[in-house]
Amino acid sequence: MMVSGDLMSKKNQIRRQVSWVIILIFLIISTSVGGFLWVKYEIDRKNNNNNQQEIEKEKAREAKRVELIEKSALLVKGYYYQEAIELLKSNPEVYNDKLKNEVKKIEDFVAALQPYTGRIEQVFFHSLIVYPELAFGPKSSEPQGYNYWMTTQLEFERMLPLLMERGYVLVRISDLYEVDAQGNVSAKTLYLPKGKRPLLISVDNVGYPESRKKDGFASRLIIDNNNEISAVIRNLEGKEVISRTAEVFPIVDDFVKVHPEFSYRGAKGMLGITGSWGVMGYDPKIPEEALEAKRIANRMKELGWEFVSHSYTHAGGKYFSENSTLEGIKEDTELFKKWIVPIIGDSNVFIAPFGITLKGELYQYFIDEGYTFYLNVDRRSQPRIIGKSVLMPRINLDGFVMNRDKAYISEHFFDVDKVYDQRRPPFQ
Question: 396 - beta bridge partners?
Fold first, then answer.
């Protein structure tokens, strides 16, 4: 009986040991499986996170590519071809086959450009008539003169899209000619897309005399709260207001923002300053006003405008007429250099008062004074290199020309009937 009891006790002990072994094995297996599953879960989770992060990073890279393509397209519209290519290549992290393809498109486009060989046109304006009811009204100081030689705001705003439709692109004189260290002038090769043609714009007498302020013209230029150039004008009630449409400059600036293809590499136009009229509404002989005029001039240069001489006196007699004398034009030039050049800076462009073309030693005097480009008025001629100068004709797009030379203007620039302001009085 004792043997039998001992045997049973040993069997139970063995069973318990086996049970513990089984439990231990189960625990080991469970732990291993659980650990494996946990590790797998963590690996999968990290992989998923990494994949998601990479997806988000790629989305951000693609968004940047789209942004670069859009910005480069604007640069191409404005004829900044190399700058557009450099922009597309600027970020190595996002540069891929898609951007390489965009670069190739631009390079192929540039390679296909042909040198421009057609006419060089230059048009000019005076300050715009903003309120025809004042300019042509009974209290106007010069209604017939305004009807002849001025352009209304409405007409100017109508001209720009029509000029663009004809393929015109604003350029600088320096885009067309180069001057070497010895003063020799040569024509540059200008590459424009097919159908585009260069256009120079100048605005004369940017000074705003008191008589015109009451006749519906702007009174001065300012830098507005948006760091843009705006005009100040007296409205019909006689109150001064700030306007983006009361003068050539803000109108062109805003038009080019919407249509960068209308401006070759940021070119706008030239301001012909007449010294005795002041500078953009400021008196150069009053230090505070001269300082403000210089600040405005510097900002306008940043926006693509250039400043040139339109003489100091803009007077006839011994200055600018058939009776001009060397003494007269020297006096005029010295006054301009004394009072105006410190504000607007040096320029090699001279706009002749009344469009007169001086001859002989009088013409040569301006060239010797550093005015390489002499701008007269002539609707049919083309620029001519004369020695170390260029004689450049301009066309006045005003009431006189739109009435007396309507067919020519319609053929070369725009349909006059689509531009002409019917608020003008009958032309005499």
Answer: 124
Torsion sign (Cα): 371, 377, 383, 384: negative
CB-CB neighbours of 185 under 10 Å: 17
- The structure tokens listed for 184 are 């020799």
Which DSSP helix (H) or strand (E) runs through 160? helix 153-165
pTM of the model: 0.88
Q: What is the pLDDT along the chain (428 residues), one digit of tens a residue?
A: 444 556 566 666 666 665 665 666 665 666 665 556 555 665 666 666 677 887 888 889 999 999 999 999 999 999 999 999 999 999 999 999 999 999 999 999 999 999 999 999 999 999 999 999 999 999 999 999 999 999 999 999 999 999 999 999 999 999 999 999 999 999 999 999 999 999 999 999 999 999 899 999 999 999 999 999 999 999 999 999 999 999 999 999 999 999 999 999 999 999 999 999 999 999 999 999 999 999 999 999 999 999 999 999 999 999 999 999 999 999 999 999 999 999 999 999 999 999 999 999 999 999 999 999 999 999 999 999 999 999 999 999 999 999 999 999 999 999 999 999 999 999 98
